[in-house]
Design a protein that fits this description.
Layout: H1 7-16, H2 20-41, H3 47-63, H4 74-97, H5 119-133, H6 137-148, H7 153-160, H8 164-189
Helix pairs in contact: 1-2, 2-3, 3-4, 5-8, 6-8
Length: about 190
């Protein structure tokens, strides 16, 4: 590792002694060196993967800076961390690659992605209106009061003259009939 600046050791020793400025200078100088090394070691990796490798290396370096011996060169210490973290990133990418599909590979003009945002809700609304029209007057009234106007059971009972229990039963049965009518209307549409 010939490309190590002799100041690296000095800055690292000062950083281990608590000098934050020396540590900041060291990180600023080491960052481009790490990026070059990562690019040289993994030339076919994406820019995002290389940056992940470098960032994870810096994090591991920060967490383990107390292990560095100032009497030895810093470059092999950093490069060793880079090799380990780079391998971790590549392994992680390989594991996830089998379970992921890149959406960027779908052409922008793919016709399967083009649709009217309200198309599905419009057809559901039409099916529901057709199904409601098939219900009895009582079922329509119960659903209108409780589901559309969102009255409480007590308020709906006062308006209809029904007991709360009878209103609950009528609402359940009206909902079941509405579901059956909508299912029939959908199958008729297909």
């Amino acid at each position: 590792m010939v490309d190590e600046d002799p100041n690296w050791r000095v800055w690292m020793a000062a950083a281990q002694a608590g000098d934050a400025r020396s540590y900041a200078v060291l990180l600023r100088v080491v960052l481009p060196w790490l990026r070059r090394r990562a690019r040289a070691r993994w030339p076919y990796s994406s820019a995002a993967d290389l940056e992940d490798m470098v960032q994870e290396t810096l994090l591991a370096f920060h967490q383990n800076r107390h292990l560095y011996d100032p009497g030895r060169p810093l470059a092999p210490f950093l490069f060793g961390i880079l090799k380990l973290r780079g391998a971790d990133v590549r392994r992680r990418r390989q594991r996830h690659a089998g379970r992921e599909t890149a959406i960027d590979e779908v052409p922008v003009t793919f016709s399967g992605l083009i649709m009217n945002e309200t198309q599905e809700s419009d057809s559901d609304h039409a099916v529901m209106l057709a199904a409601i029209s098939k219900l009895s007057e009582r079922d329509r009234m119960v659903l209108e009061l409780l589901k559309v106007q969102q009255l409480s059971l007590r308020e709906a009972a006062v308006q209809t003259g029904m007991s709360i229990m009878a209103l609950k039963v009528a609402t359940f049965r009206a909902t079941q009939r509405l579901k059956a009518a909508m299912k029939g209307a959908r199958s008729d549409a297909n």
